[in-house]
Specification:
Helix content: 25-40%
Order of helices and strands: EHHHHEHEHEEEEEHEEHH
CATH architecture: Alpha-Beta Complex
Radius of gyration: 21 Å
Strand content: 5-15%
CATH class: Alpha Beta
Structural class: alpha+beta
Largest sheet: 4 strands, antiparallel
Number of helices: 9
Number of domains: 1
Distance between the termini: 34 Å
Amino acid sequence: MSTVSKVVLAYSGGLDTSVILRWLQDTYRLEPARAKAKAAGVAQIYVEDLRDEFVRDFVFPMFRANAIYEGEYLLGTSIARPLIAKRQVEIARETGAGAVSHGATGKGNDQVRFELGYYALEPDIRVIAPWREWDLTSRERLLAYAERHGIPIEMKHKGGGSPYSMDANLLHISYEGRSLEDPSREPEEDMWLWTVAPEAAPDAAEYVELEYARGDIVAVNGRSMTPAQSLAELNRLGGKHGVGRLDLVENRYVGMKSRGCYETPGGTIMLKAHRAIESICLDRDRAQDVADHDRRLAGQR
């Protein structure tokens, strides 16, 4: 296996990328460079707050287009990947890294999202995709590898075995794996992290007033907010009232079906509000044209 002096990994702290950290060092012989950097007092770990950029430049434009995949999925994972890829390429340029890496499996959509982003911004960059190279072909094997190498893993399932495969950002949380592989089984209630069950939500209605400027939210209930603050507040309000849960079997870009559960409370409110504005502003023919365009756009996820 060839030596790479430096790799920029999209690291989430979950099972897959925690194992990938160690695997990259073993497979691509990164440890000498790491030890040298550590001895020199250098620690190039980038933990950055991209929330406003995420909402302003990615989430808001997506909701202006009502981009909903297969009529239900609000693209919470899809819309985050271009920003992560963009920042990885920027860091690779800043640090002189020869490669970028991601933790997407070889059967999902994320590998396509990440790599199209990388190559659009840096066509000659090297991409390391461990799931297409290693023999750790299941989450159980990943857990065993983590245990052998002393890699701490959080979110182990209370019943033992691997945790749910989760992705979380300011727009949503997604869940895959475990019992969700059986479409006949209902999700476990304690899986949900942001929303209460509708049965446990308050009986009294709560009104939310949104102020828009040029198509984007600028205030919630009379309070001016940044893009990230507005989405966080809508997540809080929606989650409190059991808004934004979704259980879906979708068609993946790579040709297979996948079941996922999603929590998108703030995004669900944003979509409803934007469609309400359109119902006031658009005539029948224009509304149909917009709906056709929105559907085609979401299909390019």
